[in-house]
Structure formats: structure tokens, C-alpha cells
Amino acid sequence: MFVTPAYAQAAGASSGAAAFGQFIPLILIFAIMYFLMIRPQQKRLREHRAMVEALRRGDQVVTGGGIVGKVTHVREDGQVEVEIAPGVKVNVVKATITQVLNKTEPAANS
Asked: Which 3-state string (H, E, C) describes the chain?
């Protein structure tokens, strides 16, 4: 019914290289996931953050809800005022802006 001590000692004598060999597939899966999923997502986040920080008055933007409008005022508290129709302005959180359609040129410093 019980395993004798001699059998238990023989089963536990595995080399360190064989134990490391069992972790190689796990390490390879993590490396593949990093290069195919995690790294591209981080790149997209950096690009989006740069796009949002570069917003300026006059830019035509698309929000996450699909509303297209023109930025009329950029605030420091993480919001922008967007004119979606003549005389209709809404406050939008900067992070919800998904795309800049038309970028305004910076004013010339003459």
C-alpha cells in the first residue's frame, strides 16, 4: 500500500538540466506573446498619448462615440471643447479622441 523508501529516492533523482528543459516551452510562449501582443499594444498607446498631447485649437477630430467635430478649446484638466455643429459645443475627455482627421498648421513665428 505504501511506497517503500527505495522507490521514493529513485524517483526524485532528476538532473537540473532536465528540470530546466521543462520550462523552455513556457519561456518561448511568453517571448512570442511579448513580441506579438504586448509590444505592439504599448507602441499604440504611446502613439495615442502623443496624438492627444499634440491636440490644438482647429484640429478636426473623431471621438470614441463616432462624433466628428472641431476642437475649439484645449483645457489643462484633460478635456477639450469640441464644436460638433455651428453653435453646438461639447466637452470631451482627451483620452476618448480616437483620430485626428485634419491637423492645423502651427502659427508662423515672424
From this structure: CCCCHHHHHHHCCCCHHHHHHHHHHHHHHHHHHHHHHHHHHHHHHHHHHHHHHCCCCCCEEEECCCCEEEEEEECCCCEEEEEEECCEEEEEEHHHEEEEEECCCCCCCC
pTM of the model: 0.68
Q: What are the pLDDT digits (tens) for 43-90? A: 999 999 999 999 999 999 999 999 999 999 999 898 999 999 999 999
**Any residues with CB less than 8 A from the CB of 101 and at least 6 apart, and which?**
60, 61, 62, 68
